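Onboarding guide, step 5: your first structure request.
Type a short instruction followed by the sequence, for example:

Predict the 3D structure of this protein.
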Amino acid sequence: MRFTKMEGLGNDYIYMNCIDQDLDMQRLPELSRAVSDRHFGVGADGLILILPSAEADFRMRMFNADGSEGEMCGNGIRCFARYVYDRGLTRATSLRVQTLAGLIVPELITKGGEVAAVRVDMGEPRLRPADVPVVAEGDGPVLAHPLEVPGARFTGTVVSMGNPHVTIFTPDVEAVDLERFGPALEHHPDFPRRVNVHFVQVQGPRELKMRTWERGSGVTLACGTGACASAVAAALTGRGGREVVMHLPGGDLTIAWAADNRVYMTGPATYVCDGEFLKPF
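The system replies with structure tokens like these:
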């Protein structure tokens, strides 16, 4: 199985072109676990498939390192867009990509014929509890949801960008024991489909610092949908403006929650290597 490894701010995925090669679609969770293993596989936060679509230009499926299928990946779709452009699968610089989170539109920013960055229309944030989903009272935004886990109590703002996120604001993200509290929050009973967990430190009205425990993958260096959700959470709670720079362990993303209620994410997409996965799984 031929693959390309790419990363967006250190959030790395194995990409397999299912337009030019066939995969056993019944074994994708096993394949994702195998290729993602950092000791016995290639090593990644998950697996992303490039597929044809009857409804859009392409279809993207993504699997986390634990084999669970996710709705969308912000860093992953930037790399997806660069891959299909660079590998000659399209000459368009604005794409319509079908995902489980709906239709996502990445736009390639080129300089001298090279892809310099990718700007993605991530769609509208979903704020109703049923749309996240989260078990909470009321029908409006969930801005201060109490969360109790062994050893701690937190208050989170809950936003969906097609996948579920909870943002917990803290004065010092580096002081948070992410490996301790991340799994407990991910599996908190208030989140029936689990949740991506983000601890965010406000550094200014246009500057936020974020660390992430990603659903199904653990600690990651970046989370694009999470950066969007956390930027929306900051604006909703008066902690940030409608356009911010998100400082992630892997680098920076620019997030804009525009007047049309859509969230736009801009950041890099980088190649790591090409290869062939030979190991049985």
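Each response can be followed by summary notes, for example: Residues 129-266 form a domain with the Diaminopimelate Epimerase; Chain A, domain 1 fold (CATH 3.10.310.10).
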